[in-house]
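Entry 14. Ran structure prediction on the chain below.
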Amino acid sequence: MAKSEDSAPDPKVSPPNTYGAVVIGGTFDRLHDGHRRFLKAAAADFARDRIVVGVCDGPMLTNKKYSELIQPIERRMENVQDYIKSIKPQLLVQVEPITDPYGPSIVDENLEAIVVSKETLPGGLSVNKRRAERGLSQLKVCLLADTY
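Output, structure tokens:
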């Protein structure tokens, strides 16, 4: 029986759990619904084995509006870890503080993809440029919808 065109997979959409190791980054100041949707998509939809999350700290917070209200780094890292584990317990979750826009994304040779939003797409592309300079493989840049 031949497949109809309607049942053919969309080549623009990666199948779930496509990448063994995925990286994301953010401030994750007081985990809200937007953060949860972003973390869930990155963890549940793209990461198969491991997710690396860079949580902004130090100089990365200097220009943040209402920076005095941002929770301490330890609390934000714990919240991210706990949330991801609650939606995908089998996933290895590595949460690290980052003090520059790159963090582990330009040193971890086992990463396969970076998940970005429309606003952070330039940063994802910059990560690949820095990885190339270091002789590391290019990451698949996975762009999520504007709702994140």
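The domain at 16-143 is CATH 3.40.50.620 (Rossmann fold). Will compare against last week's run tomorrow.
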